[in-house]
From TrEMBL:
Superkingdom of source: Bacteria
Chain ranges for the short sequence motif 'HIGH' region as given in the UniProt record: 14-22
Subunit structure comment from the entry: Homodimer.
Positions annotated to bind ATP: 13-15, 21-22, 152-154, 191, 200-204
EC number(s) reported in the record: 6.1.1.2
Subcellular location: Cytoplasm
Record's GO cellular component terms: cytosol
Similarity comment: Belongs to the class-I aminoacyl-tRNA synthetase family.
Location of the motif 'KMSKS' region: 200-204
Keywords linked to the UniProt accession: Aminoacyl-tRNA synthetase, ATP-binding, Cytoplasm, Ligase, Nucleotide-binding, Protein biosynthesis
NCBIfam families membership: trpS
Protein's name according to its UniProt entry: Tryptophan--tRNA ligase
Length: 339
């Protein structure tokens, strides 16, 4: 298949319940991107193996994630949806790219530094895969000659590393890889924790009150938003300023994303209201948004044979596409063809 539109690749790691951060940072854009790009949406189950401590039910989590892709409007007739471990080419290219990656550049990855701290605080053990994680991500992206990668801000550095690895390989072997660009929106690319708005909202947060999960029931969402940290400015005023008002700015980014309204338009509408009233508006909008999403999610989630069919068809299509890139690489590296 020859792709006539630019190629777009994105993925989520099925390592637990998806959060509002995952949705706002990347998944909310996927449906409309299908019109302008050839899209591949992957469920990065091999990446999820790096987290071994809080044992997740991976089979369940993969199908949950796939159901959310569909509920967010990804259409299997327009996009390729697949599970990473079904396409062996990812693991193959991962090894090859390991040979073109530098220890020192991996040490600089902010996510590794954060995860290393969490893991070593808990277990004193850090597996090698946690360190090599961004190389598998580079393999995911580069196998498909990807032009664009829509991600949250936390993944920007990994996409930049991917470009560096691709560039290094290309300068040795010719133009094998397309250099991908991250697509990161100005607002919503880093949704923060509700009680600690200086840190990213994350699936793995031990304090569940910091996080809105996409499957949270509406009453607990209301409580979480009511307790979200704001500030003590007197008289209270709603405006966007990440450093002076991180809590309010975070709620504004959330409201803007789920209502599809520009922050400046929202600010006009919210002029003169108190924080409690503002939070009530956020709760109302979030409740409507989540109820609709959860209904659609449940419809897909109950039909496992349909989900498996989509994953199967997606894997066949991705295998076909990725084989071509991998064959070119094997040739360049001097690996003897199997037949
Ligand atoms: P993961 O599963 O941690 O996150 C999936 C996507 O959600 C974004 N995200 C956020 N965006 C805004 N605010 C937040 N609080 C927030 N939390 C998460 C992430 O930036 C990401 O876009 N390594 C990746 C998965 C992956 C991948 C890839 C992504 C594997 N291969 C290839 C792109 C391309 C990860 O763990 O994402």
């Amino acid at each position: 298949m020859i792709f006539s539109k630019p190629i777009l690749f994105s993925a989520v790691q099925p390592s637990g319940n998806l959060t509002l951060g995952n949705y706002i940072g990347t998944m909310r854009h996927w449906s409309k991107m299908q019109n302008n790009y050839e899209c591949l949406y992957c469920i990065a189950d091999l990446h999820a193996l790096t987290i071994q401590e809080n044992k997740i039910d991976l089979k369940k989590s993969v199908l949950d994630t796939l159901s959310f892709y569909l509920a967010c409007g990804v259409d299997p007739n327009k996009s390729i949806i697949f599970i990473q471990s079904h396409v062996y080419q990812h693991s193959q290219l991962n090894w090859i790219l390991n040979c073109f990656s530098q220890f020192s550049e991996l040490l600089r990855m902010t996510q590794f530094k954060i995860k290393r701290k969490i893991e070593s605080d808990c277990t004193k053990k850090i597996n090698a895969a946690l360190f090599n994680y961004p190389i598998l991500m580079a393999a995911d992206i580069l196998l498909y000659q990807t032009n664009f990668v829509p991600v949250g801000r936390d993944q920007k550095q990994h996409v930049e590393l991917t470009r560096n690895i691709a560039h290094r390989f290309n300068s040795l072997y010719g133009n094998i890889f397309t250099l991908p660009k991250p697509l990161i929106t100005q607002y919503g690319s880093k949704i923060m924790s509700l009680l600690e708005p200086h840190k990213k909202m994350s699936k793995s947060d031990v304090n569940k009150n910091n996080v809105i999960f996409l499957l949270d029931d509406i009453s607990s969402v209301a409580l979480k938003i009511q307790h979200a940290l704001t500030d003590s400015e007197m008289p209270s005023k709603i405006y966007y300023d990440i450093s002076k008002k991180p809590g309010i700015s975070n709620l504004l980014e959330i409201l803007s994303a789920i209502t599809n309204k520009d922050i400046n338009i929202l600010l006009k509408e919210l002029e003169g209201i108190m924080y409690a009233e503002f939070k009530k508006i956020v709760v109302d909008c979030l409740s409507k948004f989540l109820s609709k999403l959860q209904k659609s999610y449940n419809d897909y989630r109950h039909d496992e044979s349909y989900l498996k069919k989509i994953a199967y068809e997606g894997a066949i299509k991705s295998q076909l596409r990725s084989q071509k890139t991998l064959k070119d690489i094997h040739d360049k590296l001097g690996l003897i063809p199997f037949f």
